[in-house]
Amino acid sequence: MRILVGKTFGIGNACLAIPMIKAIASLGHDVDVLIGDGPDDFGAYEVFRELRRRGDEPVINKIYRGCVPFAVDIYDLAIMAIPYDGRWRNGLDFFAREVMDGRKRPDNIERLGFDMWKKHEVEYMMENARDLGFKGETPDGSFLESHDRTDDVVYLGIGYKRDAGGFGASKHFGNARFGALIQAIWEIRPSTRFVSTGSQRDAIESGFPITRSLGIELVDRTNSYRMEVTSLERSLSVVNDCVAYIGNDTGMMHVAASAGIPTMGLFAYPDLIVKNPPFCARSRALSFSPSGPSASDVARQFVDFVWGE
Predict the structure, then answer these.
(1) What torsion, rounded to 10 degrees, do the Cα atoms 70, 73, 76, 79 define?
(2) Cα angle at 166 between 120 and 199, to 5 degrees?
(3) Is residue 102 part of a domain?
(4) Strand pairing report for 153-157 and 99-101
(5) Residue 245: closest CA among 231, 259, 228
(6) Per-residue model confidence (pLDDT) at position 170
(7) Residue 296 shares a structural domain with residue 191
(8) Percent of residues, the chain, with pLDDT higher than 90
(9) What is the three-class DSSP state of 214?
(10) Which residues contact 250 (CB under 8 A, 6 or more apart)?
(11) Is 276 within 8 Å of 185 (Cβ atoms)?
(12) Shared-domain flag, residues 90 and 184
């Protein structure tokens, strides 16, 4: 069958759709992907483009942004993989004989809807693959080439989603906390080095304040902590070179998990630990609040998690 997967939102949601897409492709179906054309969707394009580049047997044939052109034949099936915001309509933005799924993001605004998710987003999407006959173990979410990694370099995930309501900012662990966390990890394991990547805005809002809190130059000549203002493509490569990830619940957290490196996500909302914790064999999801846990406690857990097992 020819199958179209419609996937809204950005980097993280794209990473979490990969296991379903791999499972469907393994059944012999031809899979195209439709993503949005807004700024929040650009990261999804980069993820799916990397997935399309990998291997002799492509998992994805084509990637469309915004809509599927009229010239494309009708799909046998379209899967509007959750969370779906209803932006595409069959017969207008794409053409399919049947539409599967299309479940929307829970709309309990007061509680952000997180408590309405009862299992991982990957598991919800895998229901589509199993309905099509997939019976094996859930595939991994890898989309970057695996290689040897530097044992001491950790990716510090300082980015966060920016939205008008300030929801993304509320998920931020905090610059002062990040500085204290780095110091606490250095006390346990002095050889550890940290790197963050992002836009100029990320650097101004988080990267440089963290650097200043550590008392080191903006361009750290010792490489104990560095902030790279760079492209998303370069950011993916940087994450893939690191031995582990610790930081905010971000798209880069899901990139790290997809690469199979030990990933510790810091979550401000406990219900999000049900919906979208890092999806990999070596992952931890740690809940934080204004009152704790302390940077020292997080540091001990992280060092034991990465190097103590």
Answers:
(1) -40
(2) 85
(3) yes
(4) unpaired
(5) 259
(6) 77
(7) yes
(8) 71
(9) coil
(10) 11, 12, 157, 159, 160, 161
(11) no
(12) no
The alpha-carbon radius of gyration of the chain (Å, integer) is 20
Residue 230 amino acid letter = T
Residue 147 lies in a domain: no
Whether residue 251 contacts residue 259, with contact meaning beta carbons closer than 8 Å, is answered with: no
Angle between helices 175-188 and 295-307 (to 10 degrees): 50
209 inside domain: yes
Angstrom distance (rounded) from CA 51 to CA 60: 7
Phi/psi-derived region of residue 145, left when phi > 0, alpha when psi is between -120 and 50, beta in every other case: beta
Domain that holds residue 180: 153-307
- For β-strands 244-248 and 225-229, DSSP reports them as unpaired
The predicted-structure confidence for 68-90, as pLDDT tens digits, reads as follows: 998 888 999 999 988 888 889 99
| Distance of alpha carbon 138 from the chain centroid | 17
Q: Do 122 and 20 contact (CB within 8 A), yes or no?
A: yes
How many separate domains does the chain show?
2
Over residues 165-213, the pLDDT tens digits come to 566 777 899 999 999 999 999 999 999 999 999 999 999 999 999 998 8
Residue 161 and residue 110 share a domain: no
> What is the widest separation between alpha-carbon atoms in the chain?
61
- Read off the CATH number of the domain in which 9 is found: 3.40.50
Q: Which residue has the tokens 């902590």?
A: 225
Six-digit token string for 287: 């809940």
Query: In degrees rounded to 5, what are phi and psi of residue 81?
Result: -65, 135
**Cα 296 from Cα 293, distance rounded (Å):** 8
Q: Specify whether 125 is located in the same domain as 174.
A: no
Q: For residue 202, which phi and psi values (nearest 5 degrees)?
A: -60, -40
Environment class of 121 (CB within 10 Å of its CB; exposed 0-12, middle 13-18, buried 19+):
buried
Query: Last residue of a domain, which of 99, 131, 163?
Result: 131
CB atoms near residue 135 (< 10 Å): 8
Asked if 259 contacts 240 with a C-beta cutoff of 8 angstroms, the reply is yes
